[in-house]
Amino acid sequence: MPFVQTVRGQVDAGRLGAVDAHEHVFLSSPFLAGEHFDDPDRMRAELDLVARGGIDTVVDLTTVGLGRRPAALAEISERSGVHVVLATGYHRDAHYAADHWVHREDAGVLLDVVLTDLRTGIDDRDWRGPAPRPTAVRAGVVKVGASYQRMTAGERLRIEVGIEAARLTGVGLAAHCEIGTLAAEILDLAEAGGLTADRVALAHMDRNPDPELHGELAGRGAYLLYDTVGRVKYRPDSDLVALIERVLDGGHADRLLLGTDVGRRTMLRSYGGGPGMDVLGRDFLPRLRRRVGDEPVDRITRTNPARFLATKDAS
Ligand SMILES: [Zn+2]
Q1: Ligand 1 mean position to 27 CA, how many Å?
Q2: Could you tell me if 67 and 124 are in contact, meaning their C-beta atoms sit under 8 angstroms apart?
Q3: pLDDT at 249 over 80
Q4: Dihedral angle over CA of 203, 204, 209, 210, nearest 10
Q5: What's the 249 CA to ligand 1 centre distance in angstroms?
Q6: Residue 178 to residue 148: CA distance in whole angstroms
Q7: What letter does residue 313 receive in the DSSP assignment?
Q8: CA nearest 177: which of 125, 115, 227, 110?
Q9: In which region does residue 26 sit, left (phi positive, over 0), alpha (psi from -120 to 50) or beta (all else)?
Q10: Do 166 and 140 contact (CB within 8 A), yes or no?
């Protein structure tokens, strides 16, 4: 049975249940000043709501240096009963201060940090302190990111490092595509680096809800990660339901993943905001079931994430 690396250890891929494929449980970024969330009690309460909404596993796509707290995360995962798959890898430039080490270290150092997270355990200070405090909590997915419509030299280097780490360890690669751009370019880099498109999930593609483009990307084998559920400032959820229907009609049910991507404290119910990390299970999935039926929804929330997150034999 293939396994998935969670913060509490390896879990059979078939036992993840319903998966929210893009979240953040602890997050602190200079790009989102004043919007950080790092309170274990509040985040435990948020995960309790997620569980009540029928979600069994969340994928926490927080990257190196953005406030990951592996030991606390494992504890609240245990107490809430929600499995958490935590990321490693590097985000786009905007999330790191100008003097951050990710901008100056070479590929060897950058890769070493990511491989340590995947194979040994994540530093409890998230690589921000003068010396690491190793934990036994391992990352289970690699995240990378590029800017809107362009990839800086540093971003390209860090994306290539992420691809190499995913290839070496067999975990999946989630790519932040800012407003849904550069997806094809990131897939090209993955394939050039020996990582097949079916090991790549393209995040935020619903910010560019173009069914023809999505059909092409899914046709190459990549996963389309729609992760702005409940984000009414972008568009109504009815548009997202319609987009999913179009992609299902195109024969790509096996390539869809869903998430909420709460990345600000004002989006969390435990901090008094909304729509809450539970919006996917609470509101959106029941609505989607009414429109498309149970089978596609189970495929999108259970079968597809289990396949994407299952660690492959390293190539
Ligand atoms: Zn995110």
Answers
A1: 9
A2: no
A3: yes
A4: -40
A5: 27
A6: 5
A7: P
A8: 227
A9: beta
A10: no
* Residues, CB within 5 angstroms of ligand 1 (ion): 61, 261, 263
* CA–centroid distance, residue 260 to ligand 1 (Å): 8
For domain 3-309, the CATH superfamily is Metal-dependent hydrolases (3.20.20.140)
d(CA 128, CA 131) in angstroms, rounded, equals 8
Task: State yes or no: pLDDT of 190 exceeds 50.
Answer: yes
Cβ atoms of 115 and 88 within 8 Å: the answer is no
DSSP letter (8 states) at residue 312: P
Question: If you search the block for the tokens 């429109």, which residue do you land on?
Answer: 291
Residues 266, 275: contact at Cβ < 8 Å?
no
CA 24 – ligand 1 centroid, Å: 6
> Tokens representing 9?
């250890």
Question: CA-CA-CA-CA torsion for 306, 301, 258, 21, nearest 10 degrees?
Answer: -40
Q: How far apart are the first and last CA of the chain?
A: 18
- Note the pLDDT tens digit of each residue in 120-136: 999 999 998 788 899 99
Nearest Cα to Cα of residue 63 among 156, 133, 141: 141
**DSSP three-state, residue 75:** helix
